[in-house]
Amino acid sequence: MIVTNQVDASKSFMTKEKIMNQLKQNGVKEGMTIIVHSSLSSLGWVCGGEVAVVKALKETISKSGTIVMPTQTTDNSDPCNWENPAVPKEWWEDIRQNMPAYDPVTTPSYGMGKIVENFRVHPDVVRSSHPTVSFAAWGKHAEEITSNHSLDFPFGEHSPLARLYERESYVLLLGVDYDSCTAMHLAENRLPHTLSFTKGTAMFENGKRVWREFFDIDGDSDRFPEIAKGFELEYGIQSFQIGDAKCRLVPVKELVDFTYRWFEQEVEMFDDK
Q1: Residue spans of the chain under pLDDT 50
Q2: What pLDDT does residue 91 have?
Q3: CA–CA separation, 158 vs 225, rounded Å?
Q4: Partner residues linked to 150 by β-bridges
Q5: Which residues of 91-122 are buried (b: 16+ CB within 10 A; e: fewer)?
Q6: What SUPFAM superfamilies does this protein's entry cite (predicted)?
Q7: What share of the chain is helix, strand, coil (3-state, %, to 5)?
Q8: Which of 28, 102, 180, 198 has the highest count of CB atoms within 10 angstroms of its CB?
């Protein structure tokens, strides 16, 4: 029934080769460094599903380039902040004591989608160490991008996002909007006087499972699509189709810098009032 519904809802019949051709026609090139955010269902009916999509990405970029995907495990977090669903307060301490520690090899991503999960388990993919907001990478710069991922402020200067910013990297949005664009959180982290909060997570430390607290900012990805409208106008970014999916290919550095300026101007406007 699920397959039938997907077939009925699809306008496109997609294969690995069709995805590769459409990626190349719209600027995705061999040797690029890209961070991919994706929705499998948005592409239409894909022969081979997420396996075909990951193969298409890897064969298009090749090992001379690098593919990065967010492999977040936000279920490994302090239950006092859970909302969908919330859990009773009397459970909180038991959850903190019993949540399995993050393991970059075995811990599945949470809410990231089928494409990410298939990519994550490839034997030649490496994953960063952050127990809540890790990134997985494959290709030439995979180790460099994922290493030394800071526990505190994990979308900040000591994160894979900052390493992507430093090189000529691109965001590839496959059927998702900018509210899925993790790179924009780097701009939030660079803002002065940003409030920080304490969060909790289960992780391994010297081979032992521990519950650790870390500092992070309270990011707001719901505002990213609004910011991106101005960005696309300024830089002439055009969306394109891959199958049924509306997609975009966006330079990381320019997007982060624009987002930073947007927030800066908002603060200045607020201060002037």
Answers
A1: 1-3
A2: 96
A3: 25
A4: none
A5: eeeebbeebebbebeebebeebbbbbbbbbee
A6: TTHA0583/YokD-like (SSF110710)
A7: 40, 20, 40
A8: 28
Give which of 84, 110, 112, 113 is closest to 99, Cα–Cα: 110
The residue whose two tokens read 């990805």 is 221
**Res 114: pLDDT:** 97
Q: What is the pLDDT of residue 1?
A: 38
Alpha helices in the chain (DSSP H): 2-9, 16-25, 49-61, 92-98, 114-120, 142-146, 160-166, 184-190, 224-235, 252-272
In sign, the C-alpha dihedral spanning 70, 41, 172, 250 is negative
AA letter at 199: K
Residue whose tokens read 């607290």: 213
CB distance 201 to 102 below 8 Å:
yes
pTM equals: 0.92
Model confidence over 25-73: pLDDT tens digits? 999 999 999 999 999 999 999 999 999 999 999 999 999 999 999 999 9
Letter for the amino acid at 7?
V
- Give the residue extent of every domain in the chain: 2-73+109-189+221-272
Chain centre to alpha carbon of residue 141:
17
